[in-house]
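Students often ask why we bother predicting the structure of a whole assembly rather than each chain alone. The short answer is interfaces. A chain on its own may look different once its partners are present, and contacts between molecules only exist in the joint model. In this exercise we take four input lines together and write out one structure for the complete complex. Read the inputs first and try to guess which parts will touch.
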Amino acid sequence: MEYVLGAHQYGKAETRLVRIYRDTARHQIRDLNVSTSLRGDFAAAYLDGDQATVLPTDSQKNTAYAFALDKGVTDIETYALALARHFADDIEPVQAARVEVDEYEWERVRVGGGEHPHAFVRASQEVRTTTATVQRRAHEQRAWVLSGLRDLVLLKSTGSEFTGFLHDRYTTLPETDDRVLATSLTARWRHARPERDDWSAVNASIRQVLIETFATVHSRALQQSLFQMGNAVLAAHADIAEIRLSAPNKHHFLVDLSPFGLDNRGEVFHADDRPYGLIQCAVQRADAPPAGPAWDAPGSFAG
Amino acid sequence: MEYVLGAHQYGKAETRLVRIYRDTARHQIRDLNVSTSLRGDFAAAYLDGDQATVLPTDSQKNTAYAFALDKGVTDIETYALALARHFADDIEPVQAARVEVDEYEWERVRVGGGEHPHAFVRASQEVRTTTATVQRRAHEQRAWVLSGLRDLVLLKSTGSEFTGFLHDRYTTLPETDDRVLATSLTARWRHARPERDDWSAVNASIRQVLIETFATVHSRALQQSLFQMGNAVLAAHADIAEIRLSAPNKHHFLVDLSPFGLDNRGEVFHADDRPYGLIQCAVQRADAPPAGPAWDAPGSFAG
Amino acid sequence: MEYVLGAHQYGKAETRLVRIYRDTARHQIRDLNVSTSLRGDFAAAYLDGDQATVLPTDSQKNTAYAFALDKGVTDIETYALALARHFADDIEPVQAARVEVDEYEWERVRVGGGEHPHAFVRASQEVRTTTATVQRRAHEQRAWVLSGLRDLVLLKSTGSEFTGFLHDRYTTLPETDDRVLATSLTARWRHARPERDDWSAVNASIRQVLIETFATVHSRALQQSLFQMGNAVLAAHADIAEIRLSAPNKHHFLVDLSPFGLDNRGEVFHADDRPYGLIQCAVQRADAPPAGPAWDAPGSFAG
Amino acid sequence: MEYVLGAHQYGKAETRLVRIYRDTARHQIRDLNVSTSLRGDFAAAYLDGDQATVLPTDSQKNTAYAFALDKGVTDIETYALALARHFADDIEPVQAARVEVDEYEWERVRVGGGEHPHAFVRASQEVRTTTATVQRRAHEQRAWVLSGLRDLVLLKSTGSEFTGFLHDRYTTLPETDDRVLATSLTARWRHARPERDDWSAVNASIRQVLIETFATVHSRALQQSLFQMGNAVLAAHADIAEIRLSAPNKHHFLVDLSPFGLDNRGEVFHADDRPYGLIQCAVQRADAPPAGPAWDAPGSFAG
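Now the answer. The structure tokens for the assembled complex follow.
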């Protein structure tokens, strides 16, 4: 055979799992979307159709459910790491396991001023994310953990300008010293070490730093806002090695109402769908430990 | 011509409009999706391609923007009514105008414990809705207003059963006295009169009644929960004539973990996508004023 | 109780069912999305939580699967009618049953110039639809059948104008005698009688008439195109009582390239997302039999 | 500043562009979604908010439109390369430009047995894709071109098994020697050289090879099918260096109808939504030229 099997991986994507803690009358709920992905000694399945080393994706799904009961889901990072370590440790052909978890947040229903013990309402459309990657086993084992968020929709109604940019022959955009700046932020940050017990607290703090910095930085461009946001996160959290930010510029165009005798001074906008600007950057410590395979998300494999 | 033009209407759908109030340093934001629809003397456009009576949908869009500046958007009901009245009053061929508005809610960013004056974060994925319908003009004019919400996602982790149901030859479902009950509620309620100045306060109160009732009723079926929710709204608000509720039963299936030696006592569930139950009902006052065309939504015209 | 239970219905939505015919080596496939909805004597479930008359939605799902095997799916109309008649005939509390079916079309894979016997590729994103409604039983039974299609995306690159329209103070749209006309058509037509054995052939013919008429009519407005399309269907099919058409005007805006020294004579367009015009009309025979509940789709119940 | 700006890029995403050729009465249409992304000397924008080197994303959009008129869109690869080369050649701070284009296919409407000259209907939901990446300028310039497709939905109703797989303690899946195999294929292939004039013909041939191989290989696992599909493409096209395939295993579960006295021998299936298997692999020539940045898609930057 003159053709070579290149990179390959397989797994079970989007297992929708709800874990309820009901040890006391005050229930708790964790609502997850779990995707597992294995790399390793699986070439025979591709080359010869021989499944002898292939753990079915159905078994991976079962494991996700079983671990949710057995190990629990105190936070998604701990859960994802446990699951990834299990695949790396216990399934012989696996050389690397990646577990990605999205979490949807619920709030308690308030009744008569107090919190209801077992009724919940979905909070924001924002999603918490994690990716745990574990390579090899025993003393050779290495692990990486990313945490993040998606669909955090932010808007500033002033405090944003866009001036002094490069002009080429296709440039018609006027400069502006006061515009609406809006985005739907995706952010992921890499923890310097995969061991910690304060995942949720750290992540909540980082989220707040991102939001506060977006709000308070006078923005000369979305690029600048993003870098300041990343900077602020690293400044506040010594154990974060790197942060990556991807931010669509959700354009809000001022509507020209002068044909109708109206002077629209930044009050009525058209929120456009497409196209949108897309700004992406990483901010990292100069001495950050290497990222290894932490960012090799399965979703991007073939586009 | 032996064939007859039946019901017909036209308009501009989904004008995405953001209104910012910036009279003081503490900005306010209203984020809307506006759809307008006109009925009236437009048969010639269909029969002969004669546009003489047809106000372009582009003009309807312009009007939506202009009114957002000129009349403002204190609440979506007042705005929708003003727009619908304008079309009915001022555009000669119009016999009935309907304006549907969705509103997306934003919260202020909190910085250092206080509210930021011009930075916002999208709140829940829940959507506020209204439909204003206005027929004819001058002393013959009639108006109807619906308010509502969509995508209010609720879940109870206990306090729900499903027993004693009809069995036929295709029934295999076991009875259960403790299940997860979850839905993504769509609710719309009809105001007895189209004139009021407390739209937002009333709607917030109704939303809270719906949520509290869902939480506190021990549910023998989603049907019962919905009726109780509707009942509670009518009991609390004498000026609401009718409420309609549409609720998918978002099934959460208990995962069988016994093959793995685990006893899953209501702790780990699979949140399924499709199929889903769909329960719908109206609750109304015995003496409710007639609904007229209030519920004839354009979206349902041809399915 | 002073509040009244109004209209109510319940059922199982979106049962995703694939029926494969494998009696010979040349398999056939029918790919369906089935939704069932029942009306009748179910008030006790809402009022008291008493399920004694309630056939579980799970049983409705089971019935959809069982009928797909037992009765087969020669075409979606026959299947939907059989299912609706079963609920009306055999489930005592049911007074009316509605079955909606979407069908996704597959084409055979071509290999070496011939058709493969058991490999298929999804054809267009277009969806075939039907709604069968059956009321009461025995000699009192009545049935109505709608057939239709959704997401039939059509475009004319010329042969469309928009001139001579009404101007008000908010009108800025210029007239045009040559524009791109594009839509994503939803059409549903009501069969004069629910008994026929040529559903698929009739529906294919109607689809072709719709497309040909869209193509060949010089359009003075989308309204005119729609009416002509409906007319042509009624003219070609004496057993169609009525047709309803809903057509977004998917705007294609000519891009102004003159700042770059380019003369854009109808060659480069921006395909916009929102807002869009929305044109809807019914065309019916003057002597059409009454529609009864044929058009009361569950989806529109509460918006 | 102790924190470092890492990888960064920016551009305009999803410019929805329709190019119509109307030189003769028989029009042609190209329907595109264009995303441009620039890397280079843009650090000052992030670090200081200085836009002096930043070509606005609005200008990038204008360029996409202008090139569609000026250079035309004979095929998406030629168009994407021209656009990427322009950014790399003519915009001083740019060190690398990537242009991604999706194309939606239209078919001519057939009227009276012939093809209509200017009326079109959207074909399959399948999307053609390309990514052109250009680094540096003049004699140092390098270019890479990927072509591909997305949402090619395939199904085999027999000729697929899954047996002999690894069992662990969480494995409950039964073996099967006859199942439905279905996927929604994403495939991208890298051309050995960026210069060719037969893009559309080559891509159509590759698509056909993928489909035929899926159909004709007796599948012992989706992994095996994918590798064979990649192999066949490389065997048929000496100028393709590498192909990557990403394939969800769209599970079709046999419905147990035995409680209803029915024997379901592979005839009725539930088409499930989530979770799904996800199988991904690359197949490449042993002597393939290096991929460089060809696969670094912006979409995967932060997840």
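Check your guess against this: The first helix of chain A runs from residue 43 to 47.
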